[in-house]
Amino acid sequence: MDAPAQFKYCLYARKSTESDERQAMSIDSQIKEMTIMAERDGLNIIELKQESHSAKLSGKRPVFNELLEGLRSDKFDGILTWAPDRLSRNAGDLGSLVDLMDQNKLKQIRTFGQSFSNTPNEKFLLMILCSQAKLENDNRGVNVKRGIRAKCEMGWRPCMPPIGYYNRAFNGIKDIVEDPERAPFIKEMFERVASKKHSGRTIKHWLDESKFTTRAGKKVTISQIYLMLKNPFYYGRFEYPKMSGNWYDGSQPKLVSKELFEMVQKQLAVPQKSKWGSKEFPFRRFLTCASCGSQIVGEEKFKKRVDGGMNRHVYYHCSRQVNYNCTEPYVQESVIIQELLLLSEKLTLDIKNCEPGLVNAIHKFELMAQSSKPIRGYVEYVLRNGTDFEWTRLIRNLKVKLEIHNSRVQASHVKSPAFIDNV
User: Fold this and answer.
1) CB-CB contact of 294 with 288 (8 Å)
2) What are phi and psi of 267, to 5 degrees?
3) pTM of whole model > 0.85?
4) How far is residue 183's CA from residue 205's CA, in Å, rounded to a whole number?
């Protein structure tokens, strides 16, 4: 066999930040000890490689992969490392090392107390030691999962509790207790939604006025509010892991009753989408609030007539997505149509880029009406006599931005150069 001094060694040091290797020698200590050994035994170290990475999974360590490539390219033919488990804790990386030994690319692995060369017995011993490290990892994972499952069965969810609780450790005992500062707000939040039918935006406005913050001192968002309102942890149930279908009874104090929680869920239930052909709000997606930039939303109101029938009225208003305190008033759909008629000269269409169905409709109108200004005539005709579908199709092909301000519609910010055919 070649003399050790003739081998070209790469010194490889690794330490994982995961809990399973916290007791392992630090990288600096590994390098120091192995360098001293190399000087003592006259070993030729031509490169030093180090990384902080777990060796549980095969092929996931970039520096170790560089080490393998260096061996394949004959850059070096020996490895110097503190212990076999620094090289591998999985079958894939171990197999790569043994394959390189079989190819005589890797001639020796030196550790602090052992040496492994390309002989059957030494390779077998290397595989046993690395396999033992893998077995320890696997068993540790099983034990950790078993411990977590035992904690869940005792009512302890193994992660940070939601807002309204905090973890407490006292005399070596850990438990989850109410946050005296925030828990009362959580309770009242559920009661407001169930009894007063408050929306998430209304709840946020109330919490912001009350100076309510998260444990990090930040205001809660609307999405956080809905997540809290849908979290069964507050009435004593939790799922772990998420989406696993494994449910447990928690030992934490219950901030709300199950009945109150279920009332809130009914209040939060999203209505099913309207069936095809049902009423839509044709201007909803194409109007914005001039004051704050929020989208405009529509809603309908019904008023009983003297004869027993019902009158339907459609209103549009600012959604207050940008500014909750926006003061833009409601405006009736009929008023919007009248406003658009007054703006008909600004409601431009680029006939070349319109939807084919709209182009055909304009051509049919031109033939029917014998109009010298077919586009303006068609716009006015649809606004006065069109269906919801025709209104929507017309508005989404316009080349102007429509905004509502003080119950008036204004056209601004032309999207592209205006194209008006015989206006």
Assistant:
1) yes
2) -70, -35
3) no
4) 18
Assigned CATH class of 165-268: alpha beta
pLDDT tens digits along 49-107: 999 888 778 888 899 999 999 999 999 999 999 988 888 888 888 899 999 999 999 99
Rg of the chain over all Cα atoms, to the nearest angstrom: 36
Which SS3 state, helix, strand or coil, does residue 267 take? helix
Nearest-angstrom CA–CA distance, 251 and 152: 9
Residue 101 to residue 13: CA distance in whole angstroms: 20
In degrees rounded to 5, what are phi and psi of residue 120? -55, -45
Q: Is the pLDDT of residue 423 over 60?
A: no
Q: Among residues 131, 87, 133, which one has the least CA distance to residue 106?
A: 87
- For the stretch 261-320, pLDDT in tens is 999 998 887 554 444 444 568 887 788 899 998 988 888 887 877 777 778 888 999 988
pLDDT tens-digit map of 209-260: 999 999 899 999 989 999 999 999 999 999 888 888 889 998 899 999 999 9
Tell me the pairing of strands 247-249 and 237-239.
Answer: antiparallel
Yes or no: say if 289 and 318 are a contact pair by the CB < 8 Å rule: yes
User: What's the CA gap between 17 and 51, in Å, rounded?
Assistant: 10
Per-residue confidence (pLDDT) for residue 1, from 0 to 100: 46
Asked whether the CA dihedral 193, 198, 201, 204 is positive or negative, the reply is negative
Instruction: Check residue 5 and report its DSSP letter.
Output: G
Contact 259, 236 (CB under 8 A): no
- The ranges of the chain annotated as CATH 3.90.1750.20 are 165-268
In whole numbers, what is the pLDDT of the chain averaged over residues? Answer: 84
Taking the CB of residue 284, how many other CB atoms lie within 10 A of it? 17
Residue range 384-407, pLDDT digits in tens: 888 888 888 888 888 778 889 998
DSSP summary character for residue 398: B
Tokens standing for residue 1 = 């066999």
Tokens of 294: 């929020």
Distance CA 293, CA 162 (A): 33
Alpha helices in 173-230 (DSSP H): 183-196, 200-209, 222-229
In sequence order, what are the residues at sequence separation of 6 or more whose Cβ sits closer than 8 angstroms to the Cβ of residue 309? none
CATH number for region 4-138: 3.40.50.1390
Backbone angles phi, psi at 338, to 5 degrees: -65, -40
Question: Which residues are paired to 238 by β-bridges?
Answer: 248
pLDDT above 60 (res 381): yes
**According to CATH, where is 3.40.50.1390 located in the chain?**
4-138
Helix (H) or strand (E) holding 89: none
